[in-house]
Amino acid sequence: MAKKNKQFVEKVTAMEDDFAQWYTDVVKQADLVDYGPVRGSMIIRPEGYAIWENIRDILDAKIKETGHENMYFPLFIPESMLQKEKDHIEGFAPEVAWVTHGGDEALQERLVVRPTSEVLFAEHYAKIIHSYRDLPKLYNQWSNVVRWEKTTRPFLRSLEFLWQEGHTCHATEEDAAKETRQMLDVYASVFEDYMAIPVLKGKKTEKEKFAGASYTLTIESLMHDGKALQAGTSHHLGTGFAEAFDIRFSNEAGELQPVHQTSWGFTTRSIGAMIMVHGDNCGLVVPPKIAAKQVMIVPVAQHKEGVLDKAYQLKEQLGSIARVDIDASDKMPGWKFNEYEMKGVPIRLEIGPKDIEKGQAVLVRRDTGEKLFTPIDELETAIPELLEDIQRSLFEKAMKHREEKTSVATTMEEFKNSLEQNPGFIKAMWCGDQQCEDQIKEETTATSRCIPFEQEKVADTCVCCQKQAKELVYWAKAY
Ligand SMILES: [Zn+2]
Description:
Elements: H1 2-10, H2 19-29, E1 33-35, E2 42-44, H3 46-65, E3 69-70, E4 76-78, H4 79-82, H5 86-92, E5 97-102, E6 105-113, H6 118-128, E7 137-146, E8 160-170, H7 173-194, E9 200-203, E10 215-222, E11 228-238, H8 240-245, E12 248-250, E13 256-258, E14 260-267, H9 269-278, E15 295-299, H10 307-318, E16 324-326, H11 333-342, E17 347-351, H12 353-358, E18 360-365, E19 371-375, H13 379-404, E20 406-408, H14 412-421, E21 425-430, H15 434-444, E22 447-452, E23 471-476
Parallel strand pairs: 3-7, 15-16, 15-17, 20-21
Antiparallel strand pairs: 1-2, 4-6, 5-6, 7-8, 8-14, 9-10, 9-22, 10-11, 11-14, 12-13, 17-18, 18-19, 21-23, 22-23
Helix pairs in contact: 3-7
């Protein structure tokens, strides 16, 4: 059995040796995805899709609680419609997929497979919004989008991914600003309170903002290898799309005015973040609140009389307090232990003849490996407490990691040294000039991640040009 276990673990490259390979191995071994027939596309397997469904349900409830309604738009966009907003098309043109034929016939006008749906919503809003009484309009859609990426990785960057995109219209600039911030806070809550991933909230620089937006708000998270990942964005679109698509309303004074818009998106990329923040060399570690299965019962010596009966009885009994499953297959317990460690199930519950004799079960935490011998009649209180504790310690561990991996730099030399010696976030002052941003990227490959809402002054001068600094920026190499 020992030999078998070893082989199983060897399928995953150690993260210290090659983090990218570790990620690919875990995604595959935990059975989250398979590769699709077209390069860069992915098949999301049940184990992966169940996690997405949990995240989606949590976020969908919050979207509805904040007054939004779900709807659905078509997949294709006529080329001429995408051309209407110039910055937008320029931003997306390099990565759109085109449809040129319907059956055997060449189309009169090429179609785009949606890379995002701003223009579809805009065209629709122009039709349905006339008066201030029609505002605000708060719509959201859950869908797939296609972006023809050159380099791809499952969840992180794939040709097609799943997401939600919210698109709203407001009477005033301030209302749109409030909405933009509200939805960023919703995203931050999903990451922090459910996925146990701490995020930095802030604003993107002009260079990094969404194509066609007035400004973009972002939440940024730090992965285990010290690289940042943009976890979700919320855009204030201003009146750009409203002008281009003629979305106007008459205000109370009867004057015709363009609406102020927002859009915001949250994608299956979040699963990539979960893997890279919590995972270890034994595989996935899934936070209890989004785990498909929270407790996996593994009967030990299940051929012995009474073991399976007891195991099924526990599944029944605990089913109302947690998402519980049982593996009663004839595979060896050691194989099962590894399997559910790989899949990141938060708690393993072992039950064998000796345990039954003692009236106990063995609870094993996925995050720490700690074994807890627990009386059977205390399981109903012990399990929810343990799940909560795992959830909390995953967040704390991730927060500690981020703090350890955050450095301050006041000169380019410090900047480069930090990136080399302790890769992670770098806090440095910036003059606000894009030239410095470009130069930092060129010299270090780090990009500006966000201008945090919580500003600090770590120096008086720009880390790059040493002129008067305007604001603090978080920088990092990023996915
Ligand atoms: Zn500068």
